[in-house]
Amino acid sequence: MKKILTMGQSFAQHRSRAVESLERRLFLRQGLSLGALALLSGCSITDQEGVEKMLLAMSRWNDRVQGWLFDPTKLAPEYPESAITRPFPFNAFYEEDEAPEIDATDYRLELAGLIRDRKPWTLPELYALPQVSQVTRHICVEGWSAIGKWSGTPFRTFLQRIGADTTARYVGFKCEDDYYSSIDMATALHPQTLLAFRYADRILPAKHGFPMKLRVPTKLGFKNPKHIKAIFVTNEYPGGYWEDQGYNWFSGS
Ligand SMILES: Nc1nc2c(c(=O)[nH]1)N[C@H]1C(S)=C(S)[C@@H](COP(=O)(O)O)O[C@H]1N2
Ligand SMILES: [Mo]
Question: Is there an atom of ligand 1 within 6 Å of 220 CB?
Fold first, then answer.
């Protein structure tokens, strides 16, 4: 039991109220975590590796249940433009001055996997897609949140345009800074999931993900990959940078 408490405590130290309420919503909907935890007391708690494997298996099971319960029509709250946070906080697995510098003219978005038209996209081609804006709250698991305005093309519009197999399970993202992540197809098709090119009506600055990020207001911040260089559609679980270190993969509503 010791290991679980330690994990819980370290999470609690970094937890904001916004994260708590998101987690509470998830917990209420799953209704599984306690029962699954009770099972753990039956296993040898001196075997740390065994406990960790079991926790990971539970987390993957919770991902599946959350996917079944997820309501693709339920919207994240939107805010007035006066609520936009300026400047927006930076976060990455490195310092702000190490954010990748990407050349706009050389840039090509690569496509792979279960997609009919896998031709790479230039930035002018992407900017010519239909554009929408949203003012939503970004919640980071490290205990902060901020409201932002992002503009770009609805991700489902883009997936349709490229002939993605929308019956596949996952959409994966590879980033210029070696970050990577993936989301379930229902979230990829959610009306508020955006392939975003702008923050507060300006081209995304380098630190916030130039030339584009996936804006997913129904999920925690780490499920919003910046500096996307490749998008792929697959039925094989792709994981992610933080997801592979034990953060729950679904991490959203
Ligand atoms: N490519 C890339 N995307 C990333 C990250 C990263 O380190 N690299 N960090 C994630 C995390 S944990 C957060 S909270 C947000 C931060 O985005 P921001 O710098 O625009 O606030 O980006 C997410 N996407
Ligand atoms: Mo984050």
Answer: no
**Which two structure tokens, joined as six digits, stand for 15?**
């937890």
How far is ligand 1, taken at its centre, from the CA of residue 179, in Å? Answer: 9
What range does the domain containing 23 cover?
2-69
Is residue 76 situated within a structural domain? Answer: no
User: What is the Cα–Cα distance from 4 to 25, expressed in whole angstroms?
Assistant: 21
Q: Are 189 and 166 in contact (CB under 8 A)?
A: yes
Task: Verify whether ligand 1 is closer than 6 Å to residue 132 (CB atom).
Answer: no
Structural domain includes residue 250: no
Q: Is the CB of 176 under 6 A from ligand 1?
A: no
**Nearest CA, atom 5, ligand 1:** 92
Does 110 lie in the same domain as 32? no
Say how far apart CA 209 and CA 109 lie, in whole Å.
14
| 200 Rama sector, left if φ>0, alpha if ψ -120 to 50, beta otherwise | left
Which range, of 40-54, 65-79, 94-108, 188-202, averages the lowest pLDDT? Answer: 40-54
Domain total for the chain? Answer: 2
Please tell me the distance from the alpha carbon of residue 204 to that of residue 151, in angstroms, as a whole number: 9
Is 91 close to ligand 1, i.e. is its CB under 6 Å away?
Answer: yes
The pLDDT assigned to 251 comes to 94
Residue nearest to atom 17 of ligand 1 (CA): 91
How many residues make up the chain in this entry?
253
Q: The CATH number of the domain where 101 resides is what?
A: 3.90.420.10
Residues 43 and 91 in one domain: no
Ligand 1 close to Cβ of residue 240 (< 6 A)? no
* pTM listed for this prediction: 0.85
Identify whether 251 is part of a domain: no
Tell me, yes or no, whether 34 lies in a domain.
yes
Ligand 1 atom closest to residue 177's alpha carbon, by position in its atom list: 1
